[in-house]
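Example for tutorial group B:
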């Protein structure tokens, strides 16, 4: 093949290309997931007793920050276990950035409902109290969703046909 991407031999054999000399490969594979794979995924999110697993547990070294005059910690919270104080803080942050939400076509109430969803997982960053009677103050939060969706294919049917 010469530098222009055209075949030097002029024959009809060889690889098929898409326009500019790129290889054109089309393959379709049916995705199959065994029961064991599903259980592995489920155990990544839930404990044996069905409680939500703290997905930050392996990262305890990163859940505390004591530098540059800051003393902060990070707490993992499943969406269905949010406290009133955490919801109040999240709502105050949404209200402070309401214009951005509106620009994205979202409402504060929609976002609050999204936080409380069972698939939601949150990290709350808060100050470490310097005195035991001093309550911690929230500084920031991060919201993520972990969703496991499974569709079973009826026996004898081709993938995507049911």
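The residue assignment follows.
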């Amino acid at each position: 093949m010469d530098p222009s991407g055209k075949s030097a031999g002029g024959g009809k054999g060889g690889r098929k290309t898409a326009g500019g000399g790129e290889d054109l490969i089309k393959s379709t594979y049916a995705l199959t997931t065994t029961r064991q794979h599903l259980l592995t995924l489920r155990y990544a999110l839930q404990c044996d007793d069905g409680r939500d697993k703290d997905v930050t547990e392996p990262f305890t070294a990163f859940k505390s920050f004591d530098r540059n005059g800051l003393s902060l910690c990070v707490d993992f919270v499943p969406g269905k276990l949010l406290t009133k104080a955490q919801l109040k803080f999240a709502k105050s942050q949404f209200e402070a950035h309401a214009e951005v939400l509106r620009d994205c076509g979202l409402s504060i109430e929609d976002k609050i409902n999204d936080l409380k969803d069972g698939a939601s997982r949150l990290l709350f960053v808060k100050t470490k109290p310097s005195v035991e009677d001093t309550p911690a103050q929230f500084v920031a939060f991060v919201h993520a969703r972990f969703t496991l969706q499974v569709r079973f294919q009826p026996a004898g049917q081709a993938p995507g046909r049911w």
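Residues 84-96 form the longest helix (13 residues). Compare this with the pattern of hydrophobic and polar residues in the output above.
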